[in-house]
Structures are given as C-alpha cells and as structure tokens.
Amino acid sequence: MRVFAKYLQQMAKIDEIDHKILRALSADARQSNLHLADKVGLSPSACLRRVQELERSGVIKGYRAVLDPAKLGLGFLAYVTVGLNSHTKAAQEAFERAMSRTAAVVECHNITGTVEYLLRVETADLAAYKHFHTEVLGVLPQVNAITSFVVMGSSKDARA
Q: Was domain 2-56 assigned CATH 3.30.420.10?
C-alpha cells in the first residue's frame, strides 16, 4: 500500500504544464529550451527548472535518436513470441542474456500469456532472419516454441 501511495503522490506532482513539456520533448527532444518554453507558456528559466526536475525525478529517463532501419540496411522487421520449456529463473536469465548479446533483437519483453517473451527483431532481409531464427533462437536449449509475425507495414510507430 505504501508503494501505491508513493506512486500516487509522485503522479500528483506532474501537472498540465509538465505534461505539455513531456509531449513536446517526446515529439522533438532536440528543440531549444527557448522554443520549448515558448511552446508551453513558461519563461525559459522556469521551463529549464521543470525539465531538470523531470530528469532528476526519473520521469525523463534519457534522450534518444530515432533511426531509420531501412537506411541502416535493416529492411526486415518481425515480432517473435518465444515460449520456454522451463519456467525457472535460471532459464529466463539465460534466455535474456542471449537476447542482450544479439544485435538483431532490438526489444525483448517478458510477457504474460501462453508464451514468455515478445521480441522485436530487425534484420537485413528474410535470409538474415532465417539465420537468426535457426542459428540463434533455434539452438538455445531453453526455447520450446517460436512464432514469427512479419511486419508488412507500420501506420503508426511513436517509439523514440
């Protein structure tokens, strides 16, 4: 109960101006503080203080560059569900270590449901994905089931 109360208290500290700042930074984190302040209706010094507080409190965890996978030679995208044959902590940790060492896996999520993991996999093409499927996932002793969902197009992708 204490954790939930602390969560609610932290959420109460984020007001509408903070939400405006967060939306603006999510759309363009490289904008100047002067431009951001103007956009959210604050003085530059007040805006900077709020951004610094959002960073200090961990609401803003960092800033990233949004890359174009196709321009990096990564024209194939698939979401992959993975079921493990053992539900032990050791099996999960071993799988997660293997995925963290694999460049093709750009996201690895432990999920609920009939399988344990959802992966976002980006490779150059179908042949490279087949290699990943067979030679990386297929050889892991804890992997029991693999299901691939090939992305044919994306009408919305708001990840940063």
A: no
